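Bumping my old thread because nobody answered last time. Still need a sequence for this structure:
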């Protein structure tokens, strides 16, 4: 039955759109993976730890960068309403970045010290710019998604990989230390935004003529659930990375954080690239089906099949051979990261599948229940990590407990989504 479904999907518009985005994602994945053995020899685990903390802070702020109004861009039937949501998203992103600058620039040293990462201090000066770029990228991702400009989004992924990896390698050979990793992060964001927005730049942002203050205010009221419910949900979800890094620093030190950061960078890359490709296409298709009064259950099944087919082979390989693979590719000193990866593979597999399906509650207006799931999931993850370390004194063993607990959690979550899409 699975093979029949896969064959039917191969010729569908859904599969073609996913293939466009996933093809770009695959190219974007290849370059960082190809460069990783060099990067792990140019930078120390502790320097990757600084990047991990920087990205964790960025992730927390990025989900608030547009008030989550960018997620609503694909939902209206009228293009004028979407254009006003786009304008609203860009305005909020600019405002939040200015607010971040007022906070971080005078207090960057104090904030880094309070976070237990004093080496992060100089790079906090760049965080407001990173937040602005993240907000603009998110807005254009959904704008392109609505207009079915999947090639623009795929190009953005490729540009991000080239920009980030190229700068990190160049500055790594120059001995820039942690700054090389952070500047690479920033360069990748800028390159991605340029690729995503290029078509609108050439058209001189023609949609801007549909944007007005009254229109933005009206859409802000119409989709107020996004900042009220979805923004806290996304912030709590992103907060998991920051709390995990903080807990690992307390339990085992900055070297472990560096190992963990590289491991998650490698394992979550498919979710960040290919998983997002599926999510972008599925989100638009779910919204279109909902607007047309069609059942969402067939599309839910279709998306689940695609995700399983993409996810199972690589994660089984990590589960079986994580430690030797990491040691071979990244160097012997990174073998512990492979041991962590093997333990966390079941959890990351479920996370890979859940991330694109997380668009469903937005479409069916079940964001409050989804928020509850996020809070419970974060508590289970952090509680399992702490309990595992308390019981066995080993981060690797603790991650094994995390995977066991979180697999059960995700099975419950997938069942809730299955029941939710069956309801009218």
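Sorry it took so long. Here it is:
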């Amino acid at each position: 039955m699975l093979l029949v479904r896969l064959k039917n999907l191969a010729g569908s518009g859904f599969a073609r759109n996913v293939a466009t985005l996933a093809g770009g994602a695959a190219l974007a994945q290849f370059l960082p993976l190809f460069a990783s053995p060099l990067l792990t020899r140019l930078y120390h685990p502790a320097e990757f730890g600084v990047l991990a903390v920087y990205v964790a802070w960025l992730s927390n702020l990025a989900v608030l960068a547009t008030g989550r109004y960018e997620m609503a861009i694909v939902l209206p039937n009228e293009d004028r309403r979407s254009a006003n949501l786009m304008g609203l998203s860009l305005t909020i992103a600019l405002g939040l970045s200015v607010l971040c600058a007022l906070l971080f620039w005078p207090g960057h040293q104090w904030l880094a010290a309070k976070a237990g990462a004093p080496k992060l201090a100089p790079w906090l000066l760049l965080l407001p710019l990173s937040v602005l770029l993240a907000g603009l990228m998110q807005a254009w991702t959904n704008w392109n998604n609505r207009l079915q400009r999947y090639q623009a989004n795929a190009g953005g992924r490729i540009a991000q990989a080239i920009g980030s990896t190229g700068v990190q390698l160049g500055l790594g050979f120059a001995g820039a230390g942690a700054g090389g990793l952070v500047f690479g992060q920033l360069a990748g964001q800028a390159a991605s935004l340029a690729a995503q927005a290029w078509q609108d730049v050439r058209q001189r942002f023609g949609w801007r003529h549909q944007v007005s203050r009254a229109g933005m205010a009206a859409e802000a009221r119409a989709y107020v659930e996004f900042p009220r419910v979805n923004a806290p949900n996304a912030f709590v979800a992103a907060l998991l990375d920051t709390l995990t890094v903080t807990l690992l620093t307390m339990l085992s030190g900055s070297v472990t954080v560096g190992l963990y950061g590289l491991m998650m960078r490698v394992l979550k890359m498919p979710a960040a690239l290919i998983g997002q490709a599926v999510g972008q296409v599925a989100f638009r298709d779910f919204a279109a089906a909902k607007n047309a009064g069609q059942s969402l259950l067939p599309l839910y099944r279709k998306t689940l099949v695609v995700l399983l087919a993409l996810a199972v082979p690589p994660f089984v390989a990590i589960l079986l051979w994580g430690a030797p693979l990491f040691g071979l590719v990244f160097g012997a000193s990174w073998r512990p990261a492979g041991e962590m990866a093997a333990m966390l593979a079941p959890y990351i597999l479920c996370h890979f599948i859940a991330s694109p399906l997380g668009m469903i509650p937005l479409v069916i207006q079940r964001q409050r229940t989804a928020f509850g799931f996020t809070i419970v999931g974060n508590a289970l993850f952090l509680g399992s990590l702490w309990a595992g370390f308390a019981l066995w004194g080993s981060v690797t063993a603790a991650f094994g407990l995390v995977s066991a607990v979180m697999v059960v959690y995700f099975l419950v979550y997938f069942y809730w989504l299955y029941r939710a899409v069956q309801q009218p």
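Residues 79-114 form the longest helix (36 residues). Let me know if any region looks off to you.
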